[in-house]
Specification:
Blueprint (H helix, E strand, L loop, with lengths): L1 H8 L3 E5 L9 E6 L8 H10 L1 H10 L7 E5 L7 E6 L10 H19 L3 E4 L11 H18 L5 E6 L2 H12 L3
Parallel strand pairs: 1-6, 2-4, 2-5, 5-6
Antiparallel strand pairs: 3-4
The structure holds adenosine-5-diphosphoribose.
Adenosine-5-diphosphoribose binds next to strand 2 and helix 2.
Length: 179
């Protein structure tokens, strides 16, 4: 079933190796923490590129529970908006981590649809500091995004922007051999 969906999606899902802060699209997704006050990894890179106004807006939002997502402007980023989502801290996989990660993608895509965004880019949420195994995370991300795009016209395109080659390979493998 998922194979058929992905074939039908054509090029609506793309894997890129690079820096998500350079994407000039409607929205990039940030792998934030629940406090939404910045951090390392992609969170740090996005805050550095967006400038201090981003932190001000995040402070006013006041945080985000794992699995949910919040919208801010992109400020000095080439992306117009940032969708902040909070992945699960990996604790072995028996504490709901897979469902929480799936919820990150569902929540982020729901905001993208509500806002009418045509193009959205995701990092490999939870696979860095939070320790989610990259292959499992890629399978969850591809499965959720594939089914959501098959059921909705927006966003028209989703990019998985992977910072390193191994992550990009994991996403490409999941996209070509689902399940
Ligand atoms: N562009 C794209 N991807 C990036 C970039 C970037 N500029 N910088 C890092 N990444 C990748 C990492 O290599 C990893 O594959 O993003 C993925 C997610 O890793 P983290 O940024 O560590 O995010 P996560 O695992 O979800 O942990 C979130 O880390 O930075 C803190 O404040 C953040 O507490 C939160 C936690």
């Amino acid at each position: 079933m998922v194979i058929a969906i992905q074939r039908a999606l054509g090029d609506r899902i793309q894997v890129i190796q690079g820096d998500i802060t350079t994407m000039a699209i409607d929205a990039i997704v940030n792998a934030a923490n629940a406090a939404m006050l910045g951090g390392g990894g992609v969170d740090g890179a996005i805050h550095r590129a967006a400038g201090p106004e981003l932190l001000g807006e995040c402070r006013r939002i006041g945080g985000c529970p794992p699995g949910e997502a919040r919208l801010t402007h992109g400020y000095r980023l080439p992306a117009r908006y940032v969708i902040h989502t909070v992945g699960p801290l990996w604790r072995g996989g028996d504490e709901g981590e897979p469902d929480t990660l799936a919820a990150c993608y569902l929540s982020s895509l729901a905001i993208a649809r509500e806002q009418g965004f045509r193009e959205v880019a995701f990092p490999a949420v939870a696979t860095g500091v939070y320790g989610f195994p990259r292959g499992d995370a890629a399978r969850i991300a591809v499965a959720v995004v594939s089914s959501e795009l098959a059921a909705n016209e927006l966003p028209e395109r989703v990019y998985f922007v992977c910072f390193d080659a191994a992550t990009a390979e994991a996403y490409r493998r999941s996209l070509s051999t689902p399940g």
